[in-house]
Amino acid sequence: MGKKIGRNDPCPCGSGKKYKKCCLGKDDDPVYSDPINLLQTYKAARKSSRIKQCLYPDHSECSEKIIGAHSIQNNKILKKISDNGEIYMPCPKADNPFLIPTKYGRKEASVFTGFCGYHDKVVFQAIEDNDFAGTEEQIFLYVYRAFAIEYHKKQEALEMEKFLFSKRPSLINANGFESPFTGMHLSISDLNIEKDIFDKALIEKRYDVLTSVIWKFPHFSNFAASGLEAPSKDIDGNQIQDLLNKQQNVGHIFYSVFPENNATYAIIAWAKIYDNLFEPIKKRLQEFTEQERKNYINNTLPITCENIAIKPSAWEKMSEPEKEEFEALFWGLSELAELSGEYIDRTSAPMYDMFSF
Q1: Mean pLDDT over all residues of the chain?
Q2: How far is CA 312 from CA 88, 203, 305, in A?
Q3: What is the DSSP string of 138-194?
């Protein structure tokens, strides 16, 4: 159990003041303590946590306007898998944080305020204006876009936590935790290592910083997704990194899966600095049969990705047990299984098959 927040430590609410001069001894806001107001609290926290920024490292050419940038291409992908301009995503909206899936208009689906209009257009031209050919630049840009939305969301999650602690100071030092933000700070700190790599590659236009495995499936699928994970175990269940070790930098695996023309592509990649860490995973990925590849994607996406777009009519064709299994994985079934010593084999077929959509 870590050290509690000290009187002279920065206040966890993010005010910039010392704890003793801010939230120490302050009463909780009764509105935010009442479970009846849970939805109202969630909406307010979501609104307060919004960040508008351009993640591109050189701001000298930024346009003034931060836009709602699509992390999954709108015209190239979302338009083709939408029904009447609508998409299903497991990412909930503020008005219903427990609804899975949630219906989005394709113009709002996968959107985040992480780039200015200029850099969102210029940086990603190689994948927006050209078919996927598996070039180093294209692979880099798909992975960078997956990184960007996840990095942005973690920053907003930290702001949400600060807001909630400002409304409920009694949660500070609850259970003796070292800091209410330790986990999120460590997560962002680990991603900052990869951000430095991405930033340098963008400035120098040298894209050979990733190790990747590319799969091509010979049909157009009615879903697309991007995300990342920091795996503690390899595909066979062997420990590869300790996520609880604060002295160890945690490596991430990035995913981008998208349909294009008459095919579906899956990019699985990581920064080359983590090659030794993820070599066992790369070896197994390269050995997979076609069916094992599909099984791996089917299991991995709901386990690791919130940013999943699904054609509504395809989702509705799934049986209730299929939907329930997908939702259980999305809500953390694999993490609960791992805590109890069990292991979910991602090469085994789940009941649902996203490739049959």
Answers
A1: 91
A2: 6, 39, 18
A3: HHHHHHHHHHHHHHHHHHHHHHHHHHHHHH-GGGTTGGG-S-TTHHHHHHHHHHHHH
Do 50 and 114 touch, CB atoms closer than 8 A? no
pTM as predicted: 0.92
- The DSSP secondary-structure symbol of 4 reads P
Three-state SS at 105: strand
Residues sharing a CB contact under 8 Å with residue 59, sequence separation 6 or more, in sequence order: none
Q: Where is pLDDT greater, at 98 or 141? A: 141
- Per the omega criterion (within 30 degrees of 0), is the bond before 101 cis? yes
Cα gap 256→266, rounded to integer Å: 6
183 to each of 57, 152, 192, 248, how far by Cα in Å?
25, 16, 14, 13
What SS3 state is found at 306?
coil
Model confidence at 286, pLDDT cuts 50, 70, 90, reads very high
Rg (alpha carbons) of the chain, rounded to whole number: 21
